[in-house]
Queue: 3 jobs
Job 1
Amino acid sequence: QVQLVESGGGLVQAGGSLRLSCAASGRIFSTYAMGWFRQAPGKEREFVAAIWWSAGSTYYADSVKGRFTISRENAKNTVYLQMNSLKPEDTAVYYCAEMYGRGRLRVDSEYDYWGQGTQVTVSS
């Protein structure tokens, strides 16, 4: 059974930074891609960023482009989300997800496994 464990969330002032981590364990097959999504209260879950595991190509939502950076550490089966210049509208529960087969990176239903989420709160 695959497990994804996020960490690194917390409370930060606007303009500050946080680094989220997502460690994967129990994998049997090769990962195709990993992504970060977020869900704010009363809103639908939305795509934040994704990375192709082998090539390292990255993709971002327009709302975070230039402020967030997704990266991976293959040896540790870990993906990171560096979040800079945080805004109050970035407040949400952040989830990492793993995709095994080829799929659409920005679509949450295309991912196979999900972490439990970590809260990020940005105060104004």
Note: The longest strand covers residues 18-25.
Job 2
Amino acid sequence: EVQLVESGGGLVQAGGSLRLSCAASGFTFDDYAIGWFRQAPGKEREGVACISRSDGSTYYADSVKGRFTISSDNAKNTVYLQMNSLKPEDTAVYYCGGYYSDSCPPDDGWYDYWGQGTQVAVSS
């Protein structure tokens, strides 16, 4: 059974940090690019970051560049999202997704698998 399980969310004050984890199982981890997304109440889903398999290239939304870092621990089949300098507008449910390719997809509609999400709340 394919599973992507997010963890690490919580409540933090503005300026604080959180590290989210996305643990994958049931598929060959090295064959999939992994991305992070978020969705705030009343807003559309937004792609946050992605890490490719071909060369470990990373991609970020402009809204998080310089504050968030995506990384992968292949031995643990886990992808992380380190979030620093958090802002109230980062409040959302964060999801990870898997795309069967060694490169990140052109948009989030291409992802094959999704996790259930983890809530991040940033207070001002």
Note: The mean pLDDT is 95.
Job 3
Amino acid sequence: VQLQASGGGLVQAGGRLRLSCVASGRTFSSGAVGWFRQAPGKEREAVAAINWSNGVTYYVDSVKGRFTISRDNAGNTVYLQMSSLKPVDTAVYYCAAKEDYTNRYFVTSVYDYWGQGTQVTVSS
């Protein structure tokens, strides 16, 4: 499966952006899809994930209440709605998909497929 992330851009603090992750080659049917981000000089970190089978969502504390991960019914697109953006949210955002059934949603090494990343820049 190939993942294509899009929707990044430049936004002022307090603003909103919606990222999209489109899968080609196959639809999501099991496992999970996650959003990760990597700021300059920092390690890649998890942001949110969604269990594809039951739709349960997971968020890291720093984005709870501000970001929402969702999916479409067709099974090939995952969104990350970001609100109340802060300069610390500035990073390249990646979507990823994993096929295993473990609860390790925030562990980068368990993800099998990665998109190319989309830049999000939040100005103060």
Note: The chain has a mean pLDDT of 94.
